[in-house]
Amino acid sequence: MQPDHIRASDADRDQVAERLREALAEGRLSPVEHEERLDTLYRAKTIGELGPIVSDLPRSGTPGMPGLPGLGGAEPGDTTDGMEILGSDARDLAGQSKGSENLVAVFGGAERRGRWLVEPRTNVSVLCGGVELDLREAVLSRHEVTIQLAVILGGVDITVPHGVRVINNTSAILGGTDLHGTDQVTDPNAPVVHLTGTCMLGGVDVKAKKVKKKRKGKRGE
């Protein structure tokens, strides 16, 4: 068991978030309670602060992390309209997970598109630049992932496939985050993308779109 005073890692928080999602799907938590516990989760700094968040929830079917009750991960093969969670053909890619990824665009741009691994936590920093994240063909390392945003005088465009829940917890200062077509997802088992951080004098634009169809090769090629 880990000492309560040990600083919590992003992976620790992600496991707690996954258990909260399961509890919501099982009807053990109301949507309001789920959101309140998520807020507490992302403010927590130590292992000791994470434990009480799920202390009244039974353990999930998957063995949890030592020191934290009732935590579990996504099931292999879970999919949603092109976005895959640890499916058989994605395990090699998922095995390369490092827990987090940092994308920085300062007076320039950065992008992630096509087949790529969405880490449990993606940190996006923009200063007078732009970042594009296309998740339609991406592989989720977990059922719930977090994109931490720090946008100043710039923009971030995020595209997700239909059927993905996007939960916006960003703060805006002379800027804002716009969600298009993502507020109709009510399935409690749907994959979740959490948006956190701050947008100042800039914008974050999130759109739900269909997965691009692969073009067939021309005859003779």
Walkthrough of the structure:
With 221 residues, this protein is of the alpha/beta class. The protein folds into two domains: 1-73, no CATH class; 74-211, no CATH class. Helices cover 17% and strands 36% of the residues. The chain is built from four helices and 14 strands. The protein has helices spanning 10-26, 31-43, 47-50, 91-94; strands at residues 78-80, 83-85, 100-106, 109-112, 117-118, 121-127, 130-134, 139-140, 144-152, 155-161, 165-173, 176-180, 192-200, 203-209. The strands form three sheets. A five-stranded parallel sheet has the order 3-6-9-13-11, with helices on one face. A five-stranded parallel sheet has the order 4-7-10-14-12, with no helix packed on it. Strand 1 and strand 2 form a beta hairpin. Helix 1 (10-26) runs antiparallel to helix 2 (31-43). The longest helix is centred in the first third of the chain and has 17 residues, at 10-26. 31% of the residues are buried. Mean pLDDT is 78; it is low at 61-82 and 84-88.
